[in-house]
Amino acid sequence: MGARAQYVVVENGAWQRYYSHWAANRVVDDLLPGPAAATRCFRANREIDEWLDDVWCEGAALVDHDRRVLLWFAFVDSWDDYVAARAVLARTWPGWDVRFAHDGMGDLTHHLGLGRDLTRTPGWFETFEPSGFQGTEDTTPWSVVSVRLSDGGVRAWGSCWEPVAHVAGGPGLIDLIAASPATPVPTAMPCGGVHFDPQAHTVSLWAVQTVTGVPGWPLPGWEDWVLDFHGDDHTRQAGLLPADFRFPVPPLAAALHRLADGHSAPLPDMSAPLARATGAAGPEGTTPVVNPAALVPHEPADPTPAELAALRRAIDDALIAGAGAG
């Protein structure tokens, strides 16, 4: 199986879809050099006339030049990798509305006026009847779930579940969570969090990954509850957590350096001087030989040296901003 990706480019009132069988893990890398580079990259892929669904599409981007909107989603390894990418995109896409597509393909089709259910069959959102809740004994949970108790206090747990899984279990899961044993305080930022307030009938949720279906609230079983969705902003839940269970917000320097390492400057284009060398006469009795691969020019779909230099400056600016904030 590949890591399938879908791209949509909107320009001059028209839009086209493109497909890559392998590039879902590269969506962020392909976006970082800016709108022109990303558009060239996406248009170099195969144009298709169909939509991938949320199961098969593991990464996607919609570049709307008419409205200067970028929508994207892809898997990221950690909270700091996601936030570092957002910090750089804000600098390399100036004047654009850059949004993470939390609803997956639903956000892309909704942006085009096609609704959120174009790629989804009725009843596609899977729910379950909770029989228990198992937090994680690891100090690096995937998400953090917190509950306001009947006495007004708040408890929190590390969880190995993705954020959306906590709402897939319905309100019956809340009592099971509240009765669970304590879990270790996280030593790394989770990729999302959920806070339940049974008295206010409110669910608060944030994530740095897709939470597909949540924008279509209410989900099954939550018809009389209110959703307070915060996108990728963890600070609301952070303000509710008990003093002995805090988010350990890490510095972004390491994640920004990883981005820089993945976008080194390209080798200079030596095709012209090498071509001249092959035409020059060699010493008597010899024939000039040049490796044909050395004559391959810069790939047009790749970022140009100027675009890569601008990207490196953006990463440096983000590093400086992060150092100042620290």
How far the N terminus sits from the C terminus, by CA atoms, comes to 42 Å
Q: Uncertain runs with pLDDT below 50, 5 residues or more?
A: none
Determine the mean pLDDT: 90
Strand tally is 11
Task: Please bin the fraction of helical residues.
Answer: 25-40%
Sheet-strand content, in percent, reads 15-25%
Per DSSP, the total helix count is 10
Radius of gyration: 24 Å
The spatial strand order of the largest sheet comes to 3-2-1-4-5-6
Order of helices and strands: EEHHEEEHEHEEHHEEEHHHH
Q: Sheet with the most strands? A: 6 strands, mixed
Shape: globular
Helical/strand content category = alpha/beta
Attribute tags:
alpha/beta, 10 helices, 11 strands, 19% strand, globular
